[in-house]
Backbone:
């Protein structure tokens, strides 16, 4: 018990939230941690600042200002002799993943067209679970813009099996491919075999090299 107690007191851990895009909450957090250290007069070997560093899922949103966050950490380290630990997660892997999906059917709903993909909420749960919005791009670009509103949905019979609704999107047709961006974080890790749906193949692309890092599931793999 004494050994465990000594180990636990070597590190002070903090977690203030998720998908944070403003450096100011981190500045306030560092001031709070600094105050705790000063009041307790305890020398922690490590300070775990946790994660929460967000990424921009939209062109309209700015990324976290890492230079200002870095400056706040440097000021903190001038006052305290300790080592900093990070849990960067999403900020490193979030924008490295892309879900490629094929349009299997386009349902005409008048002013709105439902673009039914072969990907579903079981492949990317964030929109159904959090109401998260991921940018969608056509794999083959053209200048033809649709007058209809496009609602991108999956083939599962669930009201939450929906990705996003967009206006002024490029005209699409069945068998076209689209790319759902920034799925590297909480994409495959939250995926499931709901409705007995096999998981897609995972590819690692580096330059001109493409490697299969996880084979496409088959029904026999699930059963």
Residues:
């Amino acid at each position: 018990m004494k050994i465990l107690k000594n180990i636990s007191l070597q590190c002070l851990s903090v977690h203030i939230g998720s998908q944070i895009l403003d450096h100011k909450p981190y500045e306030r957090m560092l001031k709070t941690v600094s105050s705790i250290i000063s009041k307790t007069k305890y020398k922690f070997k490590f300070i775990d600042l946790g994660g929460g560093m967000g990424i921009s899922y939209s062109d309209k949103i700015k990324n976290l200002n890492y230079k200002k966050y870095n400056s706040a950490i440097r000021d903190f380290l001038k006052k305290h002799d300790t080592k900093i630990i990070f849990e960067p997660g999403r900020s490193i892997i979030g924008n490295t993943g892309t879900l490629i999906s094929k349009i299997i059917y386009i349902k005409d709903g008048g002013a709105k067209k439902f673009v039914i993909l072969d990907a579903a909420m079981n492949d990317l749960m964030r929109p159904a679970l959090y109401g998260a919005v991921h940018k969608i791009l056509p794999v083959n670009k053209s200048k033809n813009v649709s007058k209809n509103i496009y609602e991108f949905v999956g083939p599962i019979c669930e009201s939450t099996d929906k990705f996003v609704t967009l206006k002024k999107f490029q005209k699409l047709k069945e068998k076209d491919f689209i790319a759902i961006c920034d799925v590297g974080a909480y994409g495959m890790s939250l995926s499931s075999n709901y409705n007995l749906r096999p998981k897609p193949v995972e590819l690692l692309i580096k330059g001109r090299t493409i490697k299969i890092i996880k084979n496409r599931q088959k029904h026999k793999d699930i059963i």
Q: What stands out?
A: The chain has a mean pLDDT of 94. The CA atoms of residues 105 and 196 lie 20 Å apart. The radius of gyration is 22 Å. Residues 2-93 form a domain with the TIM Barrel fold (CATH 3.20.20.10).
